[in-house]
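Work Package 4 report. The design task specified in the project plan requires that, given a folded chain encoded as structure tokens, an amino acid be chosen for each position. We show below one input record used in the internal validation round.
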């Protein structure tokens, strides 16, 4: 099989590219990041082509909080369409194009005219499901919601219609597509893997009667990630030496909302390189992920691999990674009380936390790493093409 991939940036697509290259299937992978950033991903240089001219500038503006919220949708649409046009001109002959949602429409049509197949890889829930949910959330907090880009949404709908198959990383994401009328057999769940060589226990959380209780959050500090619910729950947690470490970039629009919550015992660490995450996870009693909407949060598997129990909402794809009450807890979205109850149990029952930590280390061995992810993709691609 000859497989072409297209993605914005990196995401999980370079994990897949490594697996496809190892199996002899990767024809090319196209990305909007420059080679200087991509060379660390371990894919042969002659298999990688880049178009960084629009996306890189957009990222730099966002990182410096210089991109007005009203322009983000417009620039995202421009990033997608210019990349798609460039990709279409560069598209080699292939059996399947696997493109991250939004990364290819004209290119997909070209591949199909040539007799190939097209797989839309959606890393999150259905676009309209996602937009509706987040608009409700912004309204709930009386924050200005990012304006929806009608052209981008219409283009996404065309992409879904064009796809011979849609892949998502979690059962929760698949349910959103079924809710919008997609036949279940068109939507395939392929959960992400964990790089066990990078994520493993590096120390332990504090122990003893006078030890601090360490809570960790890793992810973008945003409305989508549900951080206000965690702050409300943490403020009520009963422990004399509690600490919540928040790792991730703080979205500018949520900063006024965060100021309304107690910051006692809360440390905002900003973005941290991935090499530091294993230590932070290993030395935390629990990682909490209160997201409103996700595809599958990679940090969950990473935390489990470090022996850190996870408290996550039903929106995070947790059900595909661990069992409620065994390696952690799966709770409803928008429920600070549920988050509080689970954290308090781990405070009050240290032996429960230890059992969950041990169970997490056992469970992550059964999840499979990125090799298993590649195996699942290979089976799907063979089914679509009938090729070996």
């Amino acid at each position: 099989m000859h497989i072409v991939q297209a993605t914005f940036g990196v995401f999980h697509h370079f994990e897949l590219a490594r697996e496809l290259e190892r199996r002899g299937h990767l024809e090319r992978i196209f990305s909007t990041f420059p080679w200087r950033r991509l060379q660390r991903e371990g894919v042969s240089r002659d298999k990688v082509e880049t178009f960084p001219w629009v996306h890189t500038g957009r990222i730099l503006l966002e990182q410096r909080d210089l991109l007005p919220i009203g322009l983000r949708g417009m620039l995202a649409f421009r990033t997608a369409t210019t990349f798609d046009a460039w990709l279409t001109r560069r598209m080699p002959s292939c059996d399947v194009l696997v493109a991250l949602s939004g990364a290819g429409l004209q290119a997909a049509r070209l591949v199909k005219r040539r007799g190939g197949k097209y797989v839309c890889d959606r890393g999150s829930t259905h676009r309209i499901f996602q937009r509706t949910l987040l608009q409700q959330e912004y309204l709930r907090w009386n924050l200005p919601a990012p304006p929806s880009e009608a052209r981008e949404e219409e283009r996404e709908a065309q992409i879904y219609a064009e796809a011979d198959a849609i892949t998502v990383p979690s059962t929760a994401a698949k349910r959103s597509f079924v809710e919008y009328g997609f036949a279940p057999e068109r939507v395939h769940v392929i959960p992400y893997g964990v790089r066990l060589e990078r994520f493993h226990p590096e120390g332990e959380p504090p122990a003893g009667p006078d030890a601090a209780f360490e809570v960790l959050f890793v992810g973008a500090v945003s409305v989508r990630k549900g951080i206000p619910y965690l702050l409300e729950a943490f403020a009520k947690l009963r422990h004399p030496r509690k600490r919540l470490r928040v790792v991730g970039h703080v979205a500018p629009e949520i900063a006024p909302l965060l100021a309304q919550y107690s910051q006692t015992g809360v440390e905002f660490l900003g973005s941290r390189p991935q090499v530091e995450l294993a230590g932070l996870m290993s030395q935390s009693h629990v990682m909490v992920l209160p997201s409103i909407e996700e595809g599958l949060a990679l940090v969950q598997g990473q935390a489990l691999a470090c022996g850190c129990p996870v408290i996550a909402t039903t929106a995070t794809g947790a059900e595909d990674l661990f069992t409620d009450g065994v390696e952690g807890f799966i709770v409803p979205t928008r429920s600070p009380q549920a988050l509080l109850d689970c954290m308090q149990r781990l405070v009050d029952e240290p032996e429960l936390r230890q059992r969950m930590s041990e169970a997490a280390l056992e469970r992550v061995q059964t999840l499979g790493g990125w090799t298993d992810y590649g195996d699942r993709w290979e089976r799907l691609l063979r089914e679509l093409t009938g090729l070996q």
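The chain has a mean pLDDT of 93. Validation will be extended to a larger panel in the next phase.
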